[in-house]
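Lab channel / #folding
Pinned by the channel admin:
"Please post every new chain as: sequence first, then the structure tokens as a reply. Keep commentary short and put observations after the output so the thread stays searchable."

First post following the new format, from NK:
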Amino acid sequence: MADDEGNTTVLGSRVLTIPNLISVARLLCLPVFLWLLFSKDNRAGAAYLLAVLGASDWVDGYIARRFNQVSELGKLLDPTADRLLFIVGVAAIVIDGSVPLWIAIALLVREGLVSIVAVIIGILGARRMDVTWWGKTSTFLLMIAFPLFLVGESNVAWEGLATVLAWILVIPGLVIHWYAAATYIPAAKVALMEGRAARDQIPSRP
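Reply from TO:
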């Protein structure tokens, strides 16, 4: 729901919302992607599915904001689906050999560092951090670039164009991805201070 100024209110108790269902559907499609890529050796089909799954991240975010279906579960489920799609998709395409190894290393190192920091500050009492616009943008670019690398190694008619487009998207995607990670550093400090402050305000039980 929205307040008098048009701001979106987080519906903490909502579970069955359209954005949450989309996030669950994205996770359920991961095995299908792996099946297409490795069992059916269908790089083009796997690439198209992964691209749709990546683009759907923007769809569920738009629906959540436009129709006031933002929920606490969704704010946890959406980035979880993003991270799993990203890591599984990248790892699978690397195993397939359709993307240069240095690109995958740059991505996975960044993901590993961010995940480690998130776990550490969470243990130290930080509040949960929301995904930034930069993070969403870089994920979108890379989730389109990697399927294009797959298409570039398939036998479709536009494989050459797909490879060119993949390189056009992956370079700015990588730069923004690391920039987004850098912006998490001051945000993590704030989240840690606010989380500890909120915990200190909770009265202890007698």
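NK: The radius of gyration is 19 Å.
TO: also worth noting, The chain has one domain: 18-199.
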